């Protein structure tokens, strides 16, 4: 993906991002520069934080990218998967109930979530919850739709 344009964000837009991440994820970004990037042929709205693509917008909502979540580990909206799910989630598959080992109990259907692996806590993907937290554990069915994952074009983005 090539960068079509980039521009520095105003302080009110930066405050919106910081507040959304603090409220939703318990994450406090410590950065000097925020730039919004428009990508050629891409569906992503991305914000560079000190030059790195750490924030994305999905349906108008700011959220951490996989890189952002690994740099600033979230305290909330985390779904943890077992080793058997790692390869599938890393390849962009939606998250299925049997692979989930732990869920943040504040997650509601429609929330953006990070999907982390249980061994080291590394974030593998970002997704949108299909169901509330209390309905995520079980034997079958998709519960999180993948939005962005390790190895996709956004993850590989360098500017």
- Count all strands and give the number: 11
Quote the average pLDDT. Answer: 94
The level 1 CATH classification of the largest domain is: Mainly Beta
How do the strands line up in the largest sheet? Answer: 7-11-10-9-6-8
Tell me the Rg in angstroms.
15 Å
Q: What is the approximate shape?
A: globular
Residue share in β-strands: 35-45%
Summarize the SSE layout with pairings.
Blueprint: E1 3-8, H1 11-25, E2 34-39, E3 45-49, E4 52-58, E5 61-64, H2 66-71, E6 78-81, H3 83-90, E7 95-96, E8 100-103, E9 112-117, E10 123-129, E11 142-149, H4 153-156
Give a description of the structure.
With 159 residues, the protein is of the alpha+beta class. The chain folds into two domains: 3-70, Nuclear Transport Factor 2, Chain: A, CATH 3.10.450; 78-155, Roll (Archaeosine Trna-guanine Transglycosylase, Chain: A, domain 4), CATH 2.30.130.10. It has four helices and eleven strands, in the order E-H-E-E-E-E-H-E-H-E-E-E-E-E-H. It has helices at 11-25, 66-71, 83-90, 153-156, and strands at residues 3-8, 34-39, 45-49, 52-58, 61-64, 78-81, 95-96, 100-103, 112-117, 123-129, 142-149. The longest helix has 15 residues, at 11-25. The model has no long low-confidence stretch (mean pLDDT 94).
């Amino acid at each position: 993906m090539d960068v079509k344009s980039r521009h520095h964000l105003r302080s009110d837009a930066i405050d919106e991002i910081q507040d959304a991440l603090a409220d939703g994820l318990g994450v406090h970004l410590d950065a000097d520069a925020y730039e919004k990037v428009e990508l050629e042929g891409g569906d992503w709205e991305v914000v560079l934080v000190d030059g790195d693509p750490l924030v994305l917008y999905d349906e108008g909502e700011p959220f951490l990218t996989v890189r952002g979540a690994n740099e600033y580990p979230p305290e909330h909206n985390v779904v943890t998967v077992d080793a058997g799910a790692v390869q599938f989630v890393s390849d962009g598959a939606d998250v299925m109930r049997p692979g989930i080992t732990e869920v943040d109990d504040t997650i509601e259907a429609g929330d953006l979530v990070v999907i982390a692996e249980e061994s080291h806590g590394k974030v593998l993907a970002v997704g949108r919850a299909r169901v509330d937290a209390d309905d995520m554990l079980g034997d079958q069915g998709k519960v999180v739709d993948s939005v962005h994952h390790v190895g996709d074009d956004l993850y590989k983005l360098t500017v």
